[in-house]
Design brief:
heterodimer; A: 249 residues; alpha/beta; Rossmann fold; six-stranded mixed beta sheet; four-stranded antiparallel beta sheet; 10 strands; B: 289 residues; mainly alpha; MetI-like fold; 2 domains; two-stranded antiparallel sheet; 2 strands
Chain lengths: 249, 289
């Protein structure tokens, strides 16, 4: 079953045509990876899925992007969309407050005030993000004191705390060491039982290791989209082949 | 080569001298204040001077108690903060996060213009507009604690807006995006992440505002009534430390004159404390990022 469907989508930054006629159907409870060289539009596409592109002046989108069949640009409140579609950023961005308050920020935003309820969500989210054991004694400490890898997993926990259906990950491991990266990849594989994950990655090994489907982008065009195995073992398009074999990009 | 190094050294000397000039100015002011003020305090008695509630320089024997004026200065400053801080911070939030660009181009210079208006003009404005308004609507003769607080509240706006706005703009955009991505509204993202993250800068703005309000003289003299008393209600008049000095300096002699300088010492110590707390806030925010 498809969670997100993108049909005939075009995106412009002012006069610049950043995404050209993209068609992409992403299945539920799978990990979909976007790969491609810098500037190919993969992050732009990811940010269209939770409408973070709304912040960019002059950004215009045509075509349809639907979440469970509902158009996210015309038929859904943007804050409801972002509650359903969580995002983890390239650079970990914990708020300058305690670990607990970071996780509780989302639930509080959506009206949960009861302390016992918040306590439960904080623990559950940290457990889901596989960081509870490391942080359970530091809940009241500032989140800015954590290591880079911990901060990123905290951000994942923060995103999970609002009970999203989809998790967008924008090169979420690109600033991390291999061990932290490994932990987050493991986490993704575990999370896909409950969430649909869409990730942008520069690391083709990562796409190969954890994603079910891969879409390859080049200069704003979606060149190829197939199961990850198929894309990497028998790419249909010559450009895909050249990219994954490292001949350019 | 040699010539160049000589020139460089000469210029270094010039820079050093100019830097020295401002330090020397502070030092000289300090020395002047303390040399003239401390003996008067000693003669009057420190507790009688600071804690005394009677100011009657022309009585025999004369009384020099400035307690009422210290309280008045604190009251007026507090009033200015109550009025100026919420308006100033909210204006800064609006300018930094909500204001459409074309409007910003008008609003920003307008807030800066506020800073350029001479204080005597603020005083006139208070005298012609605020004082009659208070007299007609709240009773009393209008020249009052409330009038001074309102005018000072307006006068500290540019300081608070300017410093707060740059503090708000210094907050990383990633906090804002992080909050939005969790489904928070724009307002919530701004007030729950950006504003708290800029709190040391905003606090610095408030402290600067306090300094400005405490030191303001000309506007206050015109509209505060200048009675030496602790006001019991907002429409009562009061006399601040600064007003006391400016009102009596012209004709005072002897111990009276020295007592006024000692009043300046007290004011100076207040400002010193404010500057120090300002430094403390700054170094704390640098440590904690």
């Amino acid at each position: 079953m498809d969670k997100f469907t993108i049909d005939n989508m075009n995106l412009y930054y002012g006069k610049f045509h950043a995404l050209k006629n993209v068609n992409l159907h992403m299945p539920k409870n799978k990990i979909t990876a976007f790969i491609g060289p810098s500037g190919c539009g993969k992050s732009t596409l990811l940010k269209s899925l939770n409408r973070m592109n709304d912040l960019v002046e002059g950004c215009k989108i045509t075509g349809d992007i639907k979440l469970d069949g509902t158009d996210i640009y015309s038929d859904m409140d943007v804050n409801v969309l972002r509650k359903k579609v969580g995002m983890v950023f390239q650079k970990a961005n914990p708020f300058p407050m305690s670990v607990y308050d970071n996780i509780a920020f989302g639930p509080r935003t959506h009206g949960i005030k009861k302390k016992s309820e918040l306590d439960r969500i904080v623990e559950e989210s940290l457990r889901d993000a596989a960081i509870w054991d490391e942080l359970k004694d530091r809940l009241k400490k500032s989140a800015l004191g954590l290591s880079g890898g911990q901060q990123q997993r905290l951000c994942i926990a923060r995103a999970l705390a609002v009970k999203p259906e989809v998790l967008l990950m924008d090169e979420a491991t690109s600033a991390l060491d291999p061990i932290s990266t490994g932990k987050i990849e493991e986490l993704c594989l575990k999370l896909k039982d409950d969430y649909t994950i869409i990730m942008v990655t520069h690391n083709m090994q990562q796409a190969l290791r954890i994603s079910d489907n891969t879409a390859f982008f080049l200069l704003g065009e979606m060149v190829e989209y197939n199961s990850t195995d198929a894309v990497f073992s028998s790419p249909k398009d010559k450009r895909t082949e050249e990219y994954i074999t490292g001949r350019f990009g | 080569m040699r010539l160049k190094s000589f020139r460089e050294r000469a210029m270094q000397g010039v820079f050093f001298l100019t830097a020295l000039a401002s330090i020397a100015a502070v030092a000289v002011i300090c020395i002047f204040l303390f040399i003239n003020g401390i003996p008067a305090m000693a003669e009057i008695g420190v507790f009688d001077f600071i804690g005394g509630q009677k100011w009657a320089p022309s009585n025999v024997p004369a009384s020099y108690g400035i307690f009422n004026m210290i309280v008045a200065s604190v009251y007026v400053t507090a009033g200015a903060i109550v009025i100026g801080v919420p308006i100033g911070i909210l204006t800064a939030v609006y300018l930094a996060r909500f204001c459409p660009k074309p409007l910003y181009k008008v609003l920003k210079p307008a807030t800066e213009l506020l800073a350029g208006i001479p204080s005597i003009v603020y005083g006139f404005f208070g005298l012609m507009v605020i004082v009659p308004f208070i007299r007609d609507n709240f009773g009393g003769n209008g020249s009052s604690w409330l009038a001074a607080s309102i005018v000072l509240g307006i006068m500290i706006l540019p300081t608070i807006i300017g410093v707060s706005e740059s503090a708000l703009r210094a907050v990383p955009e990633s906090y804002y995006e992080g909050a939005l991505a969790l489904g928070a509204t724009k307002e919530r993202s701004v007030f729950k992440t950006i504003l708290p993250a800029s709190k040391s800068g905003v606090l610095a703005a408030v402290v600067l505002g306090i300094g400005r309000a405490l030191g303001e003289t000309m506007a206050v003299v015109l509209i505060a009534g200048n009675q030496v008393q602790i006001p019991s209600k907002l429409t009562d008049g009061l006399r601040t430390l600064t007003a006391n000095i400016v009102l009596e300096m012209g004709y005072s002699t002897g111990l009276h004159r020295q007592a006024l300088i000692a009043t300046g010492v007290v004011l100076f110590i207040f400002i010193l404390l404010i500057t120090l707390s300002m430094q403390a806030i700054k170094s704390r925010s640098e440590k904690h990022g």
